[in-house]
Design a protein that fits this description.
Helix content is 28%, strand content 21%. The chain is built from three helices and seven strands; from the N terminus they run E-H-E-E-H-H-E-E-E-E. Strands 1-3-2 form a three-stranded antiparallel beta sheet, covered by helices on one side. Strands 4-7 form a two-stranded antiparallel ribbon. The protein is globular, with a radius of gyration of 16 Å.
Length: 144
């Protein structure tokens, strides 16, 4: 079995440790075939190591860029969207909002399975909470 390891410098991230703990808590809570699997975390004097599922097919962004005219067939787009919506539905049922959905944060396996990744901006919500008070996301992908 292969794994991916996200290595983060502790010294550079000292003021963001709460955010990193939140990302780990969110990843630990999610178990869905279209969400990257989180395995465990190691910490030493210099680094934090997040061990996650290795996804071997590249970004959805790369696949879009390689398509003729940078478009998918309706069937292919519908298949990807169904998997993405399934992952989002699972997350929302757990009270988790991703807040940075973009093609670069959607990876594909070599068997063309979709995996949502990068939960650094994600947030857990309280039951009944409808609005968030902070703006987060990647500017070119955010709603106006």
């Amino acid at each position: 079995m292969y794994a991916a390891v996200k290595i983060m410098n502790l010294k550079k991230l000292e003021e963001h440790l709460d955010s990193i703990r939140e990302e780990i808590a969110i990843l630990n809570k999610l178990d869905h075939p279209n969400v990257v699997k989180y395995y465990e975390t190691y910490i030493d004097k210099k680094f934090i190591y997040l061990v996650m599922e290795y996804i071997d097919g590249g970004e959805l962004f790369e696949k879009i860029a390689k398509q003729e005219n940078q478009v998918f067939s309706e069937d292919m787009a519908a298949r990807y969207m169904k998997k993405l919506f399934s992952a989002l539905n699972h997350m929302h049922a757990q009270g988790i909002v991703h807040r940075d959905i973009k093609p670069e944060n959607i990876l594909l396996t070599k068997h063309d399975e979709l995996k949502l990744v990068d939960f650094g901006l994600s947030k857990r919500t309280k039951p009944g909470e409808r609005k968030m008070k902070t703006i987060a996301g990647t500017p070119y992908y955010m709603a106006p």
